[in-house]
Amino acid sequence: MKLGIILIEARDGESGGNPYRTGRQWVITEEAVTRLFDSDMAESATKKRIAFIEVSAVTMLGIDKMEPTLGYQ
Questions:
Q1: Tell me: the pLDDT tens digits for 7-36?
Q2: Terminal C-alpha separation, the chain
């Protein structure tokens, strides 16, 4: 959690506190969260250090194309 905000991919259309997870996840910086998401969502994610993101949003933002950094894979 010190590295950034954990994004957990969830199936499109899921809602609530326990959406169906695809198994993919990413860690992005707080700066990236504030650039990519609206202010309410960014504030919530930076406070909780975790957020769910739908498959379609991952594709739209190109997060699934990101290369691993810091040696993590």
A1: 999 999 987 889 999 999 999 999 999 999
A2: 16
- Give the Cα separation of 70 and 52 in Å (integer): 23
Closest by CA to 33, choosing from 47, 13, 12, is: 47
Number of domains in the chain: 1
29 domain-assigned: yes
pTM of the model: 0.83
Which burial class, exposed, middle or buried, applies to 41 when counting CB atoms under 10 A from its CB (0-12, 13-18, 19+)?
middle
Q: Is residue 28 part of a domain?
A: yes
Site of tokens 């498959």 = 55
Please indicate, yes or no, if residue 72 is contained in any of the structural domains: no
